[in-house]
Amino acid sequence: MLKNEQIRKSDREAIKRNSEDYIANRVMVVFALAIVMLWGLTYLWNAYDVAGTFFAAIKANNILIGVSVLGLAGSIAWSVHDMKKGTFKKESFFNGVMFSFFFFVLTCSSLLIKYNYIIAKRVLYVLIPGIAILHLVYCSYQREFFSLAMTHSAIAYIIWIIAKTSNPKLDLLMTVAGIVICGVALIAFFAAKKTKGRLKLGIINMKVFDSRDICPIKVSLIYGLSAVLIAAAYILGAPYAYYILYAVIGFLAVSAVYFTVKLI
Prior knowledge:
Distance between the termini: 31 Å
Order of helices and strands: HHHHHHEEHH
Mean pLDDT: 83
Largest sheet: 2 strands, antiparallel
Strand order of the largest sheet: 1-2
Shape: globular
């Protein structure tokens, strides 16, 4: 009896080690892809600054846009097919969703470089590493922290755009987008609350949070206050928008510490 218990314990430890190794390898691959993407895109937008390579850079970027659009469409079709057939494996790195994210970022990056490569430098050095960090959170932390990190990373990015730009139309568009994110996040939370943390929309079936003890009032306060901060950033503008941005980043940092302690 004791021997069987020891065997079962040994098996559980082996499974845990394999899971940890898998997560570590997956995170390393994603960060490596992020570095390669930044290196390649940096080389491309540097080519725009040299007269001799300017037209070649335009051609290369047009090809990159075509490839990334086709890759994005193919990856989405792959994901939809697997979900409909019930063969989708979220644990696998080589699945349609992972490739969809990769090609989505690549498509946005290519378009951004095509229309304004100077702004692309500022945006992509934040966006690509940010997505890699979110993947680390997705692999390692509780699902509620990933949901929070994903929405508030987008909110921080929106406030940064509001603080940085002086275009009234873009500021208004970003403000509306940020408030919509807060509203959609609340709707998703209450919908998932009825199904034990899972959100089901057609073929989409994803986990929004793990813990069943999450307080709806606290979630409502977090996203309600976030919407107010976005509106305040729009109304007050810079430099106050920067202070609001620091507050959102500080909230994410405190949340990371809190969920890391829970993880331990």
